[in-house]
Amino acid sequence: MPTLSKARDLSVDWPAELYDTLKAASVGVMSYVPDAGHSTLIKLFGADRDVVTNVLTTEEEGIAIAAGSWLGGKRSVLLMQSSGVGNCINMLSLPVQARFPLMMLVTMRGEWAEFNPWQIPMGQATQAALVAIGVTVFRAETSSDLIETVAQAATMAFEADQQIAVLIGQRLLGKKKW
Questions:
Q1: Residue 64: CB partners within 8 Å, gap ≥ 6?
Q2: Which H or E run includes 86?
Q3: 81, 107 in Cβ contact below 8 A?
Q4: Which residues contact 39 (CB under 8 A, 6 or more apart)?
Q5: Measuring CA to CA, which residue among 103, 92, 46 is closest to residue 70?
Q6: Please, what is the Cα angle at 141 between 138 and 142, to 5 degrees?
Q7: What mean pLDDT comes out for the span 11-22?
Q8: Rounded to an integer, what distance in angstroms lies between the CA atom of residue 122 and that of residue 6?
Q9: d(CA 163, CA 173)
């Protein structure tokens, strides 16, 4: 399949470049709780007949799917919002203790131009909570940083059996409009 991003401006169309990066890392399963920050990536994976997509009712289901996918010979990515990280803390002991590869892309809330005060506490605690349970955390604030970070995170997850979360800064996602 040809890459989708050859003629695109990365600063405008980073989700397509991110899709290409994950496909180059042989990701064949994508699980998610619907999120506006991941909407383009969700659509791209949803249109890809070579990728199994799973809509989750809660984020920790994605941890179990990632473990099962790896045992079945597939690489997976879990997409979630920072508020969902709090739902996953206990379940994250599975890949951490069993050393299953885990690749999570987390769109941040509670930061840049946040309008919803309920998002702020978990947004502030996301990185510390992940680190406390044993997940390696990387953060991207620009589109070029995101693509490079995800490529390296995929190598660490899938080649070195690491549990990795890439936090996508809210400023990169833009101000939410309701």
A1: 91, 94
A2: helix 82-88
A3: yes
A4: none
A5: 103
A6: 120
A7: 88
A8: 36
A9: 24
Q: Of 139, 148, 145, 149, which is closest to residue 169 (Cα–Cα)?
A: 139
- Residue 16: C-alpha distances to residues 3, 33, 109, 127, 174 (Å): 9, 19, 22, 25, 17
d(CA 104, CA 165): 5
User: What's the rounded mean pLDDT across residues 47-57?
Assistant: 98
CA dihedral (19, 171, 11, 152) in degrees, to 10, reads -50
Tokens 């399963």 belong to residue? 29
Give the model confidence (pLDDT) of 90-127 as tens digits. Answer: 999 999 999 999 999 999 988 878 778 888 888 899 99
pLDDT in tens, 119-178: 888 889 999 999 999 999 999 999 989 999 999 999 999 999 999 999 998 888 776 665
How many other C-beta atoms can be found within 10 angstroms of the C-beta atom of residue 41?
22
Helix axes 39-46, 14-24, angle to 10 degrees: 50
The ranges assigned to domains in the chain are 32-173
- Rounded Cα distance, 167 and 112, in Å: 14
Fold of 32-173: Rossmann fold (3.40.50)
